[in-house]
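pinned: reference chain
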Amino acid sequence: MKKRLTKFFSVCIALMLLFTAISAAQVFAAGDELIINSDATVNKGDKIKYTLYLSDTKEDIIGFELRMFYDHNYLELDKDSVSYGKFDGVVHNLNLEDKIPINWTNISTPMSFSKKAEFLSMEFTVLKGGNTEISQFVSEMYGDDMTYLKSYKWTYDITVNDKVVAEDKTPVISDDEETLEKNQGSFINYIDGMGEENTPNKDDHKAVIGSMPGTQIVTSYVDVTKYVDADSDENSIGLTPVIIVIAVVVVIGAIAAILIIKKVDEKKQGDNK
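pinned: its structure tokens
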């Protein structure tokens, strides 16, 4: 009887140790998992590819300005991997931390995205587990009539070793404060990734916007080398001394003219006498 009990307890202990080891392994593995945009689950050390697509435009694109955002604590950008699909001559800065400013203009070669096509792609190495986002903010995107696009659809895919882990997903719109404050252009970013003319979500079509173009401070030239805000304190303070100096010069000139005329009159009177 004792032997049977001993065997029974030995088996129970062995099973407990096995389950504990499996649970520990699962916890450890979960710690290495990274969730991107709540859409894709990847692992530490994975090489992932983020591909952004554009479709449903009604006019060809002749220019755009956008920013891509990521967290360098979770994702390491492969700078050599960044490509722009149809576009040549794209200007970008890959040396800033966590964001990539990108712009392109070519009036002579408009690009059509009436059908879904790759807009850009970039690759990252996963550094650690957790939660993170790859997001974007478009400041300008205009067609040959030089007005911003009102019909469009953004989507993205994430692949790991050519295996799709997120497909046809709606991109995250960045709420970076500096970008919203300083880089809001005519183009309007909506959280459903679609334009105001082609969205089916008419009643729930939320925009992410900063300072609107109509409320931005107007600028004007005050000299040939420097822009100054027309409504800024610098401009109002700078003009006041100029006005004072001009007024003083005018007064001094008037006094000098009076004295000269008086002298001339006195000389004439003396000559007559």
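why pinned: The chain has three helices and 17 strands. The helical segments are 2-31, 177-182, 233-272.
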